[in-house]
Protein backbone atom coordinates (compact mmCIF):
# COMPACT_ATOMS: atom_id res chain seq x y z
CA UNK A 1 0.00 0.00 0.00
CA UNK A 2 1.28 3.40 -0.96
CA UNK A 3 1.72 5.93 1.81
CA UNK A 4 0.46 9.10 0.13
CA UNK A 5 1.88 11.33 2.82
CA UNK A 6 5.28 9.75 2.31
CA UNK A 7 4.99 10.31 -1.45
CA UNK A 8 4.02 13.93 -0.91
CA UNK A 9 6.89 14.44 1.53
CA UNK A 10 9.32 12.79 -0.87
CA UNK A 11 8.21 15.12 -3.66
CA UNK A 12 8.81 18.03 -1.30
CA UNK A 13 12.23 16.62 -0.45
CA UNK A 14 13.13 16.40 -4.13
CA UNK A 15 11.90 19.95 -4.70
CA UNK A 16 14.03 21.05 -1.78
CA UNK A 17 17.14 20.26 -3.83
CA UNK A 18 16.55 23.54 -5.66
CA UNK A 19 18.59 26.09 -3.78
CA UNK A 20 16.49 28.67 -1.96
CA UNK A 21 13.13 27.06 -2.78
CA UNK A 22 10.86 26.44 0.19
CA UNK A 23 8.34 23.61 0.11
CA UNK A 24 4.94 23.07 1.65
CA UNK A 25 2.37 20.30 1.68
CA UNK A 26 -0.48 22.81 1.79
CA UNK A 27 -1.21 26.12 0.16
CA UNK A 28 -0.33 28.73 2.82
CA UNK A 29 -2.45 31.81 3.38
CA UNK A 30 0.57 34.04 3.31
CA UNK A 31 3.22 32.31 1.21
CA UNK A 32 6.81 33.30 1.63
CA UNK A 33 8.13 32.96 -1.91
CA UNK A 34 9.78 31.29 -3.57
CA UNK A 35 7.82 28.28 -2.43
CA UNK A 36 6.67 25.02 -4.03
CA UNK A 37 3.35 23.60 -2.87
CA UNK A 38 2.58 19.93 -3.48
CA UNK A 39 -1.10 19.18 -4.05
CA UNK A 40 -2.71 15.82 -4.80
CA UNK A 41 -5.20 16.07 -7.67
CA UNK A 42 -6.40 12.65 -8.79
CA UNK A 43 -5.66 8.98 -8.27
CA UNK A 44 -6.18 6.18 -10.78
CA UNK A 45 -6.44 2.87 -8.96
CA UNK A 46 -6.10 -0.67 -10.30
CA UNK A 47 -3.64 -0.05 -13.11
CA UNK A 48 -2.39 -3.59 -12.49
CA UNK A 49 -3.90 -6.63 -10.84
CA UNK A 50 -4.02 -6.78 -7.04
CA UNK A 51 -3.25 -3.07 -6.71
CA UNK A 52 0.13 -3.59 -8.29
CA UNK A 53 0.19 -0.09 -9.74
CA UNK A 54 -1.59 3.17 -8.97
CA UNK A 55 -1.23 6.52 -10.70
CA UNK A 56 -1.11 9.57 -8.44
CA UNK A 57 -1.48 12.91 -10.21
CA UNK A 58 -0.04 15.84 -8.31
CA UNK A 59 0.16 19.53 -9.04
CA UNK A 60 3.25 21.34 -7.88
CA UNK A 61 2.55 25.04 -7.66
CA UNK A 62 5.63 27.22 -7.56
CA UNK A 63 5.00 30.72 -6.25
CA UNK A 64 7.83 33.10 -6.92
CA UNK A 65 6.78 36.53 -5.73
CA UNK A 66 4.70 39.54 -6.48
CA UNK A 67 3.29 39.61 -9.98
CA UNK A 68 4.75 43.01 -10.74
CA UNK A 69 8.32 42.03 -9.98
CA UNK A 70 10.52 41.56 -13.02
CA UNK A 71 12.89 39.46 -10.94
CA UNK A 72 10.03 37.07 -10.15
CA UNK A 73 9.41 36.44 -13.84
CA UNK A 74 13.06 35.61 -14.45
CA UNK A 75 13.05 33.32 -11.44
CA UNK A 76 10.03 31.51 -12.81
CA UNK A 77 11.73 31.09 -16.17
CA UNK A 78 14.54 29.21 -14.42
CA UNK A 79 12.10 27.00 -12.53
CA UNK A 80 10.25 26.17 -15.74
CA UNK A 81 13.39 25.22 -17.65
CA UNK A 82 13.85 21.54 -18.49
CA UNK A 83 17.43 21.74 -17.24
CA UNK A 84 19.61 23.80 -14.99
CA UNK A 85 20.10 23.96 -11.24
CA UNK A 86 16.67 25.53 -10.66
CA UNK A 87 14.70 23.20 -12.95
CA UNK A 88 11.59 21.91 -11.18
CA UNK A 89 11.46 18.97 -13.57
CA UNK A 90 15.01 17.88 -12.78
CA UNK A 91 14.46 18.39 -9.05
CA UNK A 92 11.26 16.35 -8.87
CA UNK A 93 12.83 13.57 -10.92
CA UNK A 94 16.13 13.66 -9.00
CA UNK A 95 15.08 10.62 -6.95
CA UNK A 96 12.66 8.71 -9.13
CA UNK A 97 11.87 6.18 -6.42
CA UNK A 98 10.77 8.96 -4.08
CA UNK A 99 12.69 7.43 -1.24
CA UNK A 100 11.46 3.95 -2.07
CA UNK A 101 7.80 4.96 -2.13
CA UNK A 102 7.25 4.82 -5.89
CA UNK A 103 8.24 2.99 -9.04
CA UNK A 104 8.71 6.17 -11.00
CA UNK A 105 7.85 9.84 -11.16
CA UNK A 106 7.62 12.19 -14.09
CA UNK A 107 6.91 15.86 -14.48
CA UNK A 108 4.64 15.82 -17.51
CA UNK A 109 4.38 19.51 -18.10
CA UNK A 110 3.92 23.05 -16.90
CA UNK A 111 0.23 23.61 -17.43
CA UNK A 112 -0.45 27.08 -16.18
CA UNK A 113 1.49 30.24 -15.49
CA UNK A 114 0.18 33.55 -14.32
CA UNK A 115 -0.92 35.61 -11.38
CA UNK A 116 -2.29 34.07 -8.20
CA UNK A 117 -4.33 36.01 -5.67
CA UNK A 118 -3.97 35.05 -2.01
CA UNK A 119 -5.19 37.23 0.86
CA UNK A 120 -5.47 40.27 -1.40
CA UNK A 121 -1.89 39.81 -2.53
CA UNK A 122 -1.06 39.02 -6.12
CA UNK A 123 1.71 36.55 -6.77
CA UNK A 124 3.26 35.02 -9.84
CA UNK A 125 2.97 31.25 -9.98
CA UNK A 126 3.39 28.25 -12.25
CA UNK A 127 1.70 24.86 -11.99
CA UNK A 128 3.47 21.64 -12.91
CA UNK A 129 1.66 18.36 -13.45
CA UNK A 130 3.45 15.42 -11.87
CA UNK A 131 2.56 11.74 -12.22
CA UNK A 132 3.74 9.29 -9.61
CA UNK A 133 3.66 5.57 -10.43
CA UNK A 134 3.41 3.63 -7.17
CA UNK B 1 -39.12 -15.93 -13.16
CA UNK B 2 -35.63 -17.30 -12.60
CA UNK B 3 -32.79 -14.85 -12.70
CA UNK B 4 -29.05 -15.15 -12.29
CA UNK B 5 -29.17 -12.81 -9.29
CA UNK B 6 -31.46 -15.21 -7.42
CA UNK B 7 -28.84 -17.88 -7.92
CA UNK B 8 -26.16 -15.50 -6.61
CA UNK B 9 -23.96 -15.80 -9.63
CA UNK B 10 -21.50 -13.09 -8.76
CA UNK B 11 -20.48 -10.68 -11.42
CA UNK B 12 -17.25 -8.92 -10.64
CA UNK B 13 -14.96 -6.17 -11.78
CA UNK B 14 -11.52 -7.36 -12.79
CA UNK B 15 -8.98 -6.09 -10.29
CA UNK B 16 -7.63 -9.05 -8.39
CA UNK B 17 -6.68 -11.62 -11.02
CA UNK B 18 -3.80 -13.77 -9.88
CA UNK B 19 -1.13 -14.55 -12.45
CA UNK B 20 1.90 -16.69 -11.81
CA UNK B 21 4.57 -17.98 -14.14
CA UNK B 22 6.81 -20.87 -13.15
CA UNK B 23 5.72 -20.32 -9.57
CA UNK B 24 6.47 -16.60 -9.46
CA UNK B 25 3.52 -14.36 -8.70
CA UNK B 26 3.57 -11.62 -11.34
CA UNK B 27 0.04 -10.32 -10.76
CA UNK B 28 1.17 -6.87 -9.69
CA UNK B 29 3.01 -6.37 -12.99
CA UNK B 30 0.07 -7.49 -15.10
CA UNK B 31 -2.74 -5.27 -16.38
CA UNK B 32 -4.62 -7.78 -18.55
CA UNK B 33 -4.84 -11.54 -18.62
CA UNK B 34 -6.72 -13.85 -20.93
CA UNK B 35 -6.95 -17.60 -21.27
CA UNK B 36 -8.76 -18.97 -24.30
CA UNK B 37 -9.57 -22.63 -24.72
CA UNK B 38 -10.59 -23.72 -28.20
CA UNK B 39 -11.86 -26.80 -29.89
CA UNK B 40 -11.34 -27.47 -33.56
CA UNK B 41 -14.48 -27.86 -35.61
CA UNK B 42 -14.60 -31.13 -37.54
CA UNK B 43 -17.29 -31.04 -40.15
CA UNK B 44 -19.64 -33.96 -40.41
CA UNK B 45 -22.13 -32.48 -42.85
CA UNK B 46 -23.63 -35.06 -45.13
CA UNK B 47 -26.63 -35.65 -47.35
CA UNK B 48 -28.68 -36.27 -44.20
CA UNK B 49 -27.95 -32.85 -42.69
CA UNK B 50 -31.11 -31.34 -44.15
CA UNK B 51 -29.32 -28.39 -45.64
CA UNK B 52 -27.43 -27.49 -42.44
CA UNK B 53 -23.76 -27.87 -41.67
CA UNK B 54 -22.90 -30.25 -38.84
CA UNK B 55 -19.73 -30.26 -36.77
CA UNK B 56 -18.22 -32.20 -33.91
CA UNK B 57 -15.43 -31.20 -31.56
CA UNK B 58 -11.91 -31.95 -32.65
CA UNK B 59 -8.57 -31.30 -31.01
CA UNK B 60 -8.53 -28.79 -28.20
CA UNK B 61 -6.02 -25.99 -27.96
CA UNK B 62 -5.51 -22.85 -25.97
CA UNK B 63 -3.59 -19.67 -25.60
CA UNK B 64 -2.84 -17.16 -22.90
CA UNK B 65 -2.20 -13.50 -23.43
CA UNK B 66 -1.05 -10.83 -21.04
CA UNK B 67 -0.30 -7.12 -20.89
CA UNK B 68 2.63 -6.54 -18.55
CA UNK B 69 4.37 -3.52 -17.11
CA UNK B 70 8.07 -3.76 -17.87
CA UNK B 71 10.11 -4.18 -14.71
CA UNK B 72 13.80 -5.01 -14.78
CA UNK B 73 14.21 -4.95 -11.02
CA UNK B 74 15.35 -8.04 -9.19
CA UNK B 75 12.51 -10.54 -9.45
CA UNK B 76 10.68 -8.25 -11.89
CA UNK B 77 8.64 -9.62 -14.75
CA UNK B 78 11.11 -8.47 -17.40
CA UNK B 79 13.95 -10.26 -15.66
CA UNK B 80 11.74 -13.35 -15.36
CA UNK B 81 11.07 -13.60 -19.09
CA UNK B 82 14.55 -12.56 -20.23
CA UNK B 83 15.87 -16.10 -20.77
CA UNK B 84 12.65 -18.02 -21.34
CA UNK B 85 11.92 -17.52 -25.04
CA UNK B 86 11.68 -20.93 -26.67
CA UNK B 87 11.03 -22.76 -23.43
CA UNK B 88 7.94 -24.28 -21.84
CA UNK B 89 6.64 -22.63 -18.70
CA UNK B 90 3.74 -23.10 -16.33
CA UNK B 91 1.05 -20.45 -16.06
CA UNK B 92 -1.54 -20.44 -13.30
CA UNK B 93 -4.49 -18.07 -13.26
CA UNK B 94 -7.20 -17.32 -10.73
CA UNK B 95 -9.98 -14.80 -11.31
CA UNK B 96 -9.75 -13.16 -7.89
CA UNK B 97 -6.73 -13.69 -5.69
CA UNK B 98 -5.05 -16.94 -4.75
CA UNK B 99 -7.61 -18.48 -2.39
CA UNK B 100 -8.84 -21.36 -4.51
CA UNK B 101 -12.54 -22.19 -4.37
CA UNK B 102 -15.44 -23.08 -6.61
CA UNK B 103 -15.89 -19.39 -7.34
CA UNK B 104 -12.17 -18.77 -7.73
CA UNK B 105 -10.83 -21.74 -9.67
CA UNK B 106 -7.23 -22.23 -10.66
CA UNK B 107 -6.48 -22.71 -14.33
CA UNK B 108 -3.09 -24.24 -15.01
CA UNK B 109 -1.49 -24.47 -18.42
CA UNK B 110 1.87 -25.31 -19.87
CA UNK B 111 2.76 -22.68 -22.45
CA UNK B 112 5.46 -22.12 -25.02
CA UNK B 113 7.13 -18.76 -24.54
CA UNK B 114 7.22 -17.69 -28.15
CA UNK B 115 8.21 -14.07 -27.71
CA UNK B 116 9.29 -11.41 -25.27
CA UNK B 117 9.49 -7.67 -25.91
CA UNK B 118 11.93 -6.23 -23.39
CA UNK B 119 11.91 -2.73 -24.87
CA UNK B 120 8.64 -1.11 -25.83
CA UNK B 121 6.92 2.24 -25.56
CA UNK B 122 6.90 5.77 -26.84
CA UNK B 123 8.44 8.67 -24.95
CA UNK B 124 6.41 9.52 -21.88
CA UNK B 125 4.52 6.22 -21.88
CA UNK B 126 4.52 3.66 -19.15
CA UNK B 127 6.76 0.84 -20.38
CA UNK B 128 4.58 -2.16 -21.17
CA UNK B 129 4.71 -5.28 -23.26
CA UNK B 130 2.14 -7.77 -24.44
CA UNK B 131 2.60 -11.47 -25.02
CA UNK B 132 0.54 -14.33 -26.37
CA UNK B 133 1.65 -17.88 -25.72
CA UNK B 134 0.11 -21.09 -27.09
CA UNK B 135 -0.66 -23.78 -24.57
CA UNK B 136 0.80 -27.25 -24.87
CA UNK B 137 -1.09 -30.18 -23.45
CA UNK B 138 -4.14 -30.05 -21.26
CA UNK B 139 -5.40 -26.90 -19.58
CA UNK B 140 -6.44 -28.06 -16.13
CA UNK B 141 -9.04 -26.61 -13.83
CA UNK B 142 -9.15 -26.98 -10.05
CA UNK B 143 -11.56 -25.68 -7.43
CA UNK B 144 -9.67 -26.77 -4.33
Walk me through the structure.
Chain A is α+β, with helices and mostly antiparallel strands. Chain A has helices at 4-15, 70-80, 88-92; strands at 22-24, 35-44, 55-66, 104-118, 121-133. In chain A, a hairpin with a 2-residue loop joins β4 and β5 (121-133). Chain A has a single domain, classed as 2-Layer Sandwich (STM4215-like), CATH 3.30.2000.30. Chain A has 3 helices and 5 strands; from the N terminus they run αβββααββ. Chain A has a 5-stranded mixed sheet. The termini of chain A are close together. Helices cover 21% and strands 40% of the residues of chain A. The mean pLDDT of chain A is 93. By secondary structure, chain B is mainly β. Chain B has one domain. Chain B has 1 helix and 8 strands; from the N terminus they run ββββαββββ. Chain B has one helix spanning 77-81, and strands spanning 18-21, 24-25, 30-43, 55-69, 88-94, 106-112, 128-134, 140-142. In chain B, the strands form 2 sheets. Chain B has a 5-stranded antiparallel sheet, with no helix packed on it. A 3-stranded antiparallel sheet of chain B has the order 3-4-7, with no helix packed on it. Chain B is globular, with a radius of gyration of 19 Å. The interface between A and B is medium-sized, with 12 and 17 residues.
Amino acid sequence: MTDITAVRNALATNLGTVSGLRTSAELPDNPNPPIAVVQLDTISYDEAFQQGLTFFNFTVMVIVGRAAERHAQRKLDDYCSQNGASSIKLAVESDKSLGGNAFDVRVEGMNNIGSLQLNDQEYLAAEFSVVVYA
Amino acid sequence: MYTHKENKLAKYVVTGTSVSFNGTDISDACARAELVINSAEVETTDFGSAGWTEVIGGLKSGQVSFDFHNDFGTGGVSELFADLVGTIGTVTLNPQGTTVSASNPTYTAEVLVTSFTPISGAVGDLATFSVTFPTTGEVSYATA
